[in-house]
Every structure is written in structure tokens, then in C-alpha cells.
Design a protein that fits this description.
Blueprint: E1 3-6, H1 11-21, E2 27-30, H2 46-61, E3 64-74, H3 95-110, E4 117-127, E5 136-146, E6 162-164, H4 176-182, H5 184-198
Parallel strand pairs: 1-2, 1-3
Antiparallel strand pairs: 3-4, 4-5, 5-6
Helix pairs in contact: 4-5
Length: 199
Amino acid sequence: MKKIVIATSNPGKLNELQAMLGPLGIETIAQSAFNIADAEEPHDTFLENALVKARHASRATGLAALADDSGLCVESLGGDPGVHSAYYAGREGGRHERDPRNNTRLVSQLRDQINRCAFYYCVLVLVHSATDPTPLVAEGRWHGEIVLDPRGEGGFGYDPHFVPRGSHLTAAQMPAEEKNRASHRAQALAALARSLRAA
């Protein structure tokens, strides 16, 4: 399998996945190249949503498809924003409008909390066809804590507020290469690559 469609319209996720998959010798094509609309994500788990997205993109293109579903889980908020991370403060507007609103809501929810521990979670699902009965599934977790004041211009989503364990930098302050070695998505992709090599 040398060519797969990436089932996301999130440019941040797309850039990260393409940067990580390139060294594996896999040609990636964004689903936007096929004018595929995003699949609905009606489920309560990351895994179910990723599977829906992968099957949707594979069905539309006839290619193998890789989907990511990921988000931020905050301990003191009972795991929120979780699967609702992208739309935590509403669905209006594009990502550049939603991200600041989501971060504002997150900070307001945590301002009076002593425990600000959180982790980014990512599940990757790779299907060889839309009806693939044995999709490859891999996951990763990136533990850290939330800081109330944003720092850094890189990354996307909640990165300006997320400080990984063992670091003094937020994910938005990290060089892209460093983030792509350590992140939840990097961990999931490393696990997926091991599964591909073993298949």
C-alpha cells in the first residue's frame, strides 16, 4: 500500500500526518483533492468517529484511507472537551474562529481549578477499503497540563495552552519537528507503522 487518502479537512492535522508519513514512503492525498466533504461525527468515542471518517473517504475514492480523531481530555472537567474538542464553544465559523473561542471556554472552565492535568488523545484508523473488516487501529496519549495564559504561535487547537509533561514549552512553542516526534499523533502513527510492518 503506497497511496492513501487522508480523511481530514483540518490543515493542522493534514500537515502533521503528511510530515510523519512521508519518511515511511507512503504517498498521501488530502480528501479535499477529491472534493470530499467531511463525514459526520455522531459518536461518543474517538474510535467510532475515526472509523466513520476512514470508511467515508475510502468509499468516495476507492483508495485506502487514514482517519484521525483526536482531542484534549482534561481530568478536572470529567474528560471534556474530549470528542467535542473541535466544537467545544460552538460550531459557528471556521477553525481560525473556533480555536480562540474553544480556548477561551477552556480557560474559563479551569480558572478556579487546582488540577489542570490533561492529555491529548489520538486514535488513527487505517482501512484498505470501505468495507475492510479488519481496520488497523492505533492510539497515542500526550500527557501534560493546561496553562491559563497562551504561549506560542505554532501548532493549532489548544496547543498554546498545553504544556507537555517534562517540558517548559507549550505545544505551540515547540519546533514542529520536536512536536511531531513527541505528540499523541506521533505516538499513534508510530504504533500504526509497527502494525503495518508486522502485517
